[in-house]
Structure formats: structure tokens, C-alpha cells
Amino acid sequence: MTVITPEKQELPKGAFRMTYEEQLAAVPKVFRAYWKKLAEKNGYYNNTFILTWADGLENELVLDAGCGQDSTLSRREKPLRRIAGLDPLRKDLQVNRSLRHKTQGVLEELPFADETFAAIHCDSVFEHITDPARVVGEFYRVLKPGGRALINTNSVFNPFMFPNKFLSVRQREWLKKKMRIASEGTYPAPYRINTRRRLVRYLTQAGFRDIRIYRWGVPNLYRPRWFLVLQLLMELLAETPLFCGLKHRLMATCRK
What we know:
- The chain is an alpha/beta fold and 256 residues long.
- It has helices at residues 20-26, 32-53, 90-95, 132-142, 169-179, 196-206, 225-237, and strands at 61-65, 82-87, 101-104, 117-123, 143-154, 209-216, 249-255.
- It has seven helices and seven strands, in the order ααββαββαβααβαβ.
- It is globular, with a radius of gyration of 18 Å.
- 36% of the residues are buried.
- The model is unreliable at 1-15 (pLDDT under 50).
């Protein structure tokens, strides 16, 4: 299994595209030791954890739901031979060279038969869905008995994610331009399922079991510096059990 070192880590889709060295140089010295811990945890969950989660699926049919322009699962040293990517945007599927099998479609109505897949991986998509019960129900329908799912998304309680729930796409594009943020695109983000309680409730109601929730965070904007400091202070606050919901990222794993 490939372990992603801090130098190779990538931020979540849509985050500020900077190298590890560029990010570290932007962090005030007093925060650098703490930032390194955040970056290591981010690299672990966004890469090593996901790649390890897929162990045993090398010859199984796996769905990358909302695969976009790239797939984390394609980075495995021991490749998954039967990954099917699904995305509503044809242009993103055309750009995606990491997957051989790709289908255009939406999560609310998966174009697959019942009990088709051994696993479903879904990264940075659930913040965009408007009917979480239907999406989770579709995941359950197309999974084989005992199949596993991994959902990686943003937390709506994070103060820097929360405004996306109310800003229009045009307003968010303007902000990205002003703050020089590079991402795959800007899409509506109603955040209908993006809390721990809602994730657990919807997954349980669909029939899933062995539900586990993970939280972590790393600053996603590095300028202006005062804004970066504000994010780091918030991450420190989010280390406490009472405010852990402030963490940027929220992940769920479960089984059918």
C-alpha cells in the first residue's frame, strides 16, 4: 500500500492549490508545528486512509460516485481493476484520465442494477446534493450485501464552508477570483446532509450499519495572513469535543 508523505499530500478538491513547502512558508512560525500535525492528518485521511479502505477490492466492481476530473482510488500501488466512474458533467469525465470505465449520470438515479457494486467511494460531492435520502437510498440499492461505502465531504458547521450554503454560484466565483483560488469548478452547495447527526440518520434510515464518522481540518486559504491565523485558531478550538463540529472535513464509512 502506498503511504502518502506530507510532501506528496493534496488538499481536498476545490481547495487552494499550493505545494506543501508553499503552505508551510505561509504559516506564521508560532503555528508551524501545529500546522504540520494538521497537514499530516489531512494527508492521511485524504489519501492513505482511503487507499487502505479499498484493500481487498482489487478484483471487485467499485463505483467512484461523482468522480470528477480525477480519482483518489486510481493512486493505489496495487490497482483496483474494475472501477466505474460516474459524474453528471461530461466535460469532467472527458478530462478524467485516471479511470477507464466512465458513465454520465446523477447520484439521485444511478444507472445501475441492484446489488452491482462491492463498494462505493464518494469524495467532495455530498455538499452539492439536494435529496440526501434518495442518494443514500440509491447507494444502498446498488451495493451488494456486505458492501462498503465511504463518503468524504465538508462540514456545514465549519465557518468557512457555511457561507457557501447561502451564496450564489456567481458570488462564490467572484470570491474565488479575488482570493485567487483554483478549483475544478463552482457548483450549488445546499449542505443538506453535512453534519455528523444527519449523516448517521440518513445512512441508518437507508439500512446501513457499522457507521463510523471521522473529522479533521487544515486551512484551505493562505492569504491574507490574518485570515490564515483565524483559521488556525479555529482549528485549535475544534480540537475540543464541544467544538469538534467546526472541523473542515467530515467522513463516513459504513456497510450494507
